[in-house]
Design brief:
By secondary structure, the chain is α/β, with parallel strands linked by helices. The chain has 14 helices and 7 strands. It has a single domain (about 55-315), classed as Rossmann fold (3-Layer(aba) Sandwich), CATH 3.40.50.300. The chain has helices spanning about 30-40, 70-80, 95-100, 115-120, 125, 145-150, 160-165, 170-175, 190-200, 215-230, 250-260, 275-280, 285-290, 295-315; strands at about 55-60, 85-90, 130, 135-140, 180-185, 200-205, 235-240. About 45% of the residues are buried. The structure holds adenosine-5'-diphosphate and magnesium ion. Magnesium ion binds near residues 70, 97 and 183. Belongs to the ParA family.
């Protein structure tokens, strides 16, 4: 018999052991993550979030690629949905990464996608799919066809208004959608303009890295143009700092600079760089489903809560 010292190997609780307060393993990192996960996944476990008075339509834009647009769109959406809200993600990037992360097979033949929606060949109701990841989480998927849309749209009537006209109020009401996130491609072309015309709010993810603000000036000028000519109500409502690496001084400097620039539009929650977050889409999952107790999941849940509470505070003022 080997003596079992309870203080040894506390990092490895028995597989599947439930975290029970006061029990030997309850304060290990794994047990704490499991505890958080069970709270997240218990309906009503961590409280429902307030529903906005009107559907909030948010364009997730930044013409720089790889800054976390798609990751932020799908994980904020999942963070809101897991707390009882109903959320639609419109995948407006031909890469279809948002569709993938939401577990939707967008390579299948004959699926009604955002491409057909923009061309007016299908209705929103025909293009909308519920994500298998999460109840209350919906997606209009993108297929590679969308790559040609940027050019095909040019010759269509009301080419900047195609998405706005397609996002019918009746269907959003029928599905009781509280939030719509439009995941933009990394460009400022006609697809992104369509997203900006369809939305009221712009959410800009900014990566805590070198040249973080590069191109943001151009993005803001484009938003102003859309505001002036196509959609008066459009405004930048939210900035999310992504891929923060606490070990680098640079990340803090970037975060500080962004806060100086954008003030309280910047969410207090910063999304850390985390391998789990980057792994999740490979399994067709959001981080909330893939590893609900992880730091990445907690940060997106916190960001989602902030977004909803800010919206509720504005509703109360209106
Ligand atoms: N918080 C994070 N931690 C680690 N990797 C991340 C994080 N956010 C995004 N990534 C990864 O960085 C890459 C770019 O992110 P993505 O959301 O696709 O950016 P965009 O849509 O702006 O091009 C992807 O491989 C993604 O998995
Ligand atoms: Mg993307």
């Amino acid at each position: 018999m080997v003596d079992q010292d309870p203080n040894v190997s506390r990092e490895t609780p028995a597989a599947g052991a439930p975290p029970v307060a006061g029990e030997p393993y309850a304060d290990t990192p794994i047990a704490m993550a499991a505890e958080r996960a069970s709270q997240v996944l218990t309906p009503g476990g961590a409280g429902q979030l307030p529903r906005p008075q009107h559907t909030r339509i948010m364009t997730v834009a930044n013409q720089k690629g790889g800054v976390g647009k798609t990751t932020t769109a799908v994980n904020l959406a999942a963070g809101l949905a897991v707390r009882g809200l109903r959320v639609l993600v419109v995948d407006l990037d031909p890469q279809g990464n948002a569709s993938t992360a939401l577990g939707i097979d967008h390579r299948a033949e004959d699926i009604a996608s955002v491409y057909e929606l923009l061309l007016g060949e299908v209705t929103l109701k025909e293009a909308i799919q519920e994500s298998p990841s999460q109840q209350g989480l919906f997606c209009v998927p993108a297929t590679l066809d969308l790559a040609g849309a940027e050019i095909e749209l040019v010759s269509l009537v009301a080419r900047e208004n195609r998405l706005r006209n397609a996002l019918s109020d009746e269907v959003l009401a029928e599905y009781q959608i509280d939030y719509v996130f439009i995941d933009c491609p990394p460009s400022l072309g006609l697809l992104t303009v369509n997203a900006m015309v369809a939305a009221r709010e712009v959410l800009i993810p900014i990566q805590c890295e070198y040249y973080a603000l590069e191109g943001v000036g151009q993005l803001l000028r484009n938003i102003e143009l859309v505001q002036a000519h196509l959609n008066r109500g459009l405004h930048v409502s939210t900035i999310v700092l992504t891929m923060y690496d606490g070990r680098t001084k640079l990340a803090d400097q970037v975060a500080e600079e962004v806060r100086r620039h954008f003030g309280d539009k910047v969410l207090g929650t910063i999304i850390p760089r985390s391998v789990k977050v980057s792994e999740a889409p490979g399994y067709g999952m959001t981080i909330i489903e893939y590893d609900p107790g992880s730091r990445g999941a907690m940060s997106y849940l916190d960001a989602a809560r902030e977004l909803a509470l800010r919206g509720a505070a504005e509703d109360a003022q209106a």
